[in-house]
Amino acid sequence: MDIILLGPPGAGKGTQAARLETSRGMVQLSTGDMLRAAVKAGSPVGLQAKAVMDAGELVSDAIVSALIGERLDQLGDSGAIFDGYPRTAAQADALDLLLEHRGRSLTHVIELVVDEDALVERIVGRFTCGNCGAGYHDRFKPPVVAEVCDVCGASAFKRRPDDNEDTVRTRMIEYRAKTAPILPLYEARGLVSRVDGMAEMDVVSAAIEAILAR
Ligand code: ADP
Ligand code: ADP
Ligand code: ZN
Predict the structure, then answer these.
(1) What is the pLDDT of residues 77-132, one digit of tens each?
(2) Are strands 135-137 and 126-129 parallel, antiparallel or unpaired?
(3) 208 vs 201: CA distance, rounded Å
């Protein structure tokens, strides 16, 4: 099973991908995470991507599709959860080829439908554990014990430099202009299911599990 989680920044893609890794042993392939790792490592890709990411614009199709191709080669039999990829029609075409060359194909495209006004609050309140990567939110998912990660016990949280109100607006515009238009292509192939991304996290997870189980 290879699936895409599609939705604007803050829709809950990363949150739900992490849950599917636990519940189904699938593997999350997040181009945002891969790019942030490249920036941190100071690799050529990272050096090229940093300013684009800080501005909330899209990194080139060739770079992100190459990153996905490398990861797919390491995947073996595990199902993939594409999170934040594809984001353009060119990336959607590239993904079809990458999968086909490896004898794989998309089984589901799950759109997380969210109210745009809520996304700024989601993004601005987002933080993660710097040790294990667990995701949190100031209001919607604070750690059980303040300042301590529920999962690993570390106290080193971090926030993304691009998670500010200005950049989020640009990211939403990019989503509307370049990413939302790929949905009809998948709809024509009968792959798309919609989930209410404004529901509580557990309710969203249950809805996704129900789609994957049928
Ligand atoms: P994305 O990967 O789509 O950008 P995230 O999964 O990182 O989104 O979620 C953005 C923020 O919103 C995180 O801080 C997360 O804890 C929170 N969040 C995710 N899903 C929900 C939800 N259903 N209700 C409230 N907050 C949520
Ligand atoms: P979010 O979780 O808010 O949806 P991501 O972590 O997926 O954001 O992406 C962060 C940034 O990384 C994007 O604003 C963009 O600059 C870059 N990026 C990530 N994935 C892609 C992609 N598939 N194509 C182009 N740029 C990407
Ligand atoms: Zn942790």
Answers:
(1) 999 999 999 999 999 999 999 999 999 999 999 999 999 889 999 999 999 999 99
(2) antiparallel
(3) 11
Residue 100 CA to ligand 1 center (angstroms) comes to 31
Ligand 2: atom nearest CA of 123 is 3
Contact status, residue 81 vs residue 20, Cβ threshold 8 Å: yes
Q: Which residues are catalytic?
A: 13, 87, 126, 159, 171
Residue 172 main-chain phi, psi, to 5 deg? -65, -40
**Residue of the CA atom closest to atom 10 of ligand 2:** 32
- C-alpha dihedral (9, 95, 45, 123), degrees to nearest 10: 10
What's the CA gap between 177 and 110, in Å, rounded?
A: 19
Contact 53, 39 (CB under 8 A): yes
Q: Which residue, by CA, sits nearest to atom 18 of ligand 2?
A: 32
The Cα 95–Cα 105 span in angstroms is 9
